[in-house]
Amino acid sequence: MDEHAAHMTPEEFRRHGHAAIDWIADYWASLDELPVRAQVAPGDVRRQLPATAPEDGEPFEALLDDLDRIVVPGLTHWQHPRFFAYFPANSSPAAILGDLLSSGIGAQGMIWATSPAVTEVEQVVLDWFADALGLPAAFRSDGPGGGVIQDTASTATFTALLSALHRASGGEARVGGVGDAQWRVYGSTQAHSSLVKAAMMAGLGEDAVRTIDVDPATQAIDVDALRDAIVEDVEAGRRPVMVHVAAGSTSTGAMDDLAAVAEVVRERGVWLHVDAAWAGVAAVCPEHREHLAGVEAADSFVTNPHKWLLTTFDCSTFWVRDRDALTGALSILPEYLRNAATESGEVVDYRDWHPQLGRRFRAVKLWAVLRTYGLSGLREHIRSGIALAGHVADLVAADDRFELVTEPVLSLVVFRLRAGDEQTLAAMEAVNASGEAYLSHTTVNGRAAIRLAVGSWRTTRHDVDRAWRALQEAATQA
Ligand SMILES: *Cc1c(COP(=O)(O)O)cnc(C)c1O
Fold first, then answer.
1. Is 411 in the pocket of ligand 1 (CB under 6 A)?
2. Cα separations (Å) of 378 from 267, 370, 373, 461, 472?
3. Domain limits at 432?
4. What are phi and psi of 136, to 5 degrees?
5. Ligand 1 pocket residue status of 402, Cβ below 6 Å
6. Judgement on whether residues 154 and 272 belong to the same structural domain of the protein
7. C-alpha 440 to ligand 1 mean position (Å)
8. Ligand 1 geometric centre to CA of 317 (Å)
9. Per-10-residue mean pLDDT for the chain, 478 residues long?
10. Whose CA is nearest to atom 1 of ligand 1?
11. Helices marked H in 363-420 — which ranges?
12. 251 and 376 belong to one structural domain
């Protein structure tokens, strides 16, 4: 038999599978020596690839060779120990094996009946995780709400908005659309861009989003301004539908006062969505739950284990307090999916919990992470990231050329060169171009700042010190 022309035999699959795992382990081992940010120009990768797919099958090894030769030089290494840009999308060996097992099982979990274990494991894992974060019991699957794994926080926020519209319109939105009502959505100037995108996708348009100012020092939403905006809108006949609370903004980690916002929306029936995409997972540590005070009042909550909790992208955990609002907005039952289990009302069909129909068995990777690390291991990971960020903040404070822009939040430090914006950005770019570490920037109150977010599972104090030395050198030249 021509071994390249057909499916791999089970023996070939094992052999190549071992080689693929070896490739990953070797890749990780090589990272310390590689520049963090890709050093290629536009088109460099493309140019090395053939213009058309091969007519005849090639040996699997050829793919691994091309990963080494073409792909790795074109990668920014997100699992690099000195990746501090954006928020690291960390991973872990356990999560990767969980993801691989999910691929191997290859089940479609769109409804309970298409693979009961896919739904029920996910429900249990999300109940475990809600408890681990100290979230309200109403979010559990045995209460009125429940959790679901979404691909990203952006999708979760979009889903929250659709649920909010369903509730506020009394079910009209799913039938007649958003109509002529002047729906309004609220978030701070620091709310993630996925909020505006959700309003665009929901057909409300970006003008429906009212952007509320923040306290210049904390970058947290001005709750009085929020209250005024809602009152003004109600008096003008507009319809407040959802308030977005940032529990850890992307730019500086700013924490909106959730309890105070909850007080404002109480009795107005406005949907309260908490976006804790990055910071929410820190709540596995009881000492890092303050910023979620008031979460009992939230209608929905999202956090991303795929950012800071060792779970390979994508894994965004989303809970609602009342699952009827969510499924009311999104349920649809074509004839070919009718089945006895759905009709019995005893099962959850996750296709009603997000925009798409099909879904993979993502719960396996989160399950693998929760079981192999245990909650104590996860707390240790979070605490070590926070301690390293504290160390960075000390280094910033000890060098006159630098200053902190905001108080560090959890594992995020935001700082700048006192010399000015140009020097700040030049120093960051010099470090990134050298490949020694990778940082990203933001603007705070109109001025440039560098963000250093610790999160990778392989980062040690040595890595943080190396990044800092590179910055100091760059500051000398800037
Ligand atoms: C990263 C981030 C998001 C978006 O995350 P995705 O999962 O990539 O959609 C949303 N909100 C906040 C606060 C974030 O930090």
1. no
2. 37, 8, 6, 18, 32
3. 369-477
4. -60, 150
5. no
6. yes
7. 15
8. 12
9. 72 97 98 96 97 96 97 98 96 98 97 97 98 97 96 98 97 92 97 98 97 97 98 97 98 98 93 98 97 96 98 97 96 88 92 96 98 98 98 98 97 98 98 98 97 96 98 92
10. 277
11. 363-398
12. no
